[in-house]
Specification:
Length: 227
Amino acid sequence: MKTVFVSWSGGKDGCLALYRVLRAGMDVRYLANMVSEDGVRSRSHGIRAAVIKKQAEALGVPIVQRPTADNTYEATFIEMLREFKREGIKEGVFGDIDFPPHREWVENVCRQVGLAARLPLWGEDQAKLLAEFIDAGFKAVVVVVKAGLLGKELLGRVVDKDFLALMQRTGGVTPCGEAGEYHTLVVDGPIFRKRLEIVKSEIITRGEHHFLEILETRLKSKKPARR
């Protein structure tokens, strides 16, 4: 059984990558989440680090959250990978789809440490990937939108087939938001042991993006599937 870590932002693409490698029988040792230097927010989508930690608890997968500044990001990431390798991890799993510079970056940092980089979604059709995510039974909510492209009213919306259709007919937007048009937080799905429930939130704007600022969450037990 191959032992891996999964690069983690809390969103749908990384979650689908996690789902695929779990179904392939891989041993996912950690989720790896880079956070702000003060440890308060996830660096990828600005979600509070405590929310991402609660999400990992809902999944039942240990999470490593590593604080870093802009100018130390790569060095901090590489050191984290070295620690993973010392624990016997062989590969890093990434949810990238079609942004070549980031693929080059993850392959480079993994190569420096002697780990393989696995990108299970790479090059696939974004609409089909999002449909796969939805059909598998995952539930995600929109937590970030880029101002000028998408409106605040989408914040908190569940990612479903109607949402996919909206993204497909909205100009300047890719179905999975791979160019940063929107980001999501996954709150439930077939690999979740518990459901992550958003209890309290507010809408804020920082720079060019609108955010669903999640202030309070709780974990809910899941009903056993009917036979």
